[in-house]
Amino acid sequence: MTPDGLRYTKDHEWARKDGAEIVVGITDYAQGELGDVVFVELPAVGRTVAAGESFGTIEAVKTVSELYAPIAGTVTAVNGDLAGEPGLVNASPYEKGWMIRLNPSNAADVDALLDAGAYTSLLESHGA
After folding, report:
1. Could you give the CA distance from residue 17 to residue 104 in angstroms, rounded to a whole number?
2. Hey, CA dihedral for 100, 28, 65, 6, is it positive or negative?
3. Mean pLDDT calculated for residue range 46-75
4. Alpha-carbon distance 62 to 30, whole Å?
5. Residue 123 domain-assigned (yes or no)
């Protein structure tokens, strides 16, 4: 499932414009590959991240993975619900399982990310 209206990275993060901010999470494909998420470490509000920079980690039963910022910006909010319910990433990766909100350094950067069709093609090229 690759929703339209979002932008995607090759590292399986998604980005959604919400007013002047960008909401970031991991894709359904990514959470499926990870398995049951047991812990999510997110950055402090106010931290500035560069595009492609690790902003946290996600721990599943079988692995720990880095989370990468799809664009540069300043973290304006983190999803505090994930501290008590990390499984929201599995159950609702595009809604309740979001990770961070960014005030982008350049809002146009999000448009340079993959659209749903390009992300779906990327998954198909990897046999997903």
Report:
1. 10
2. negative
3. 96
4. 13
5. no
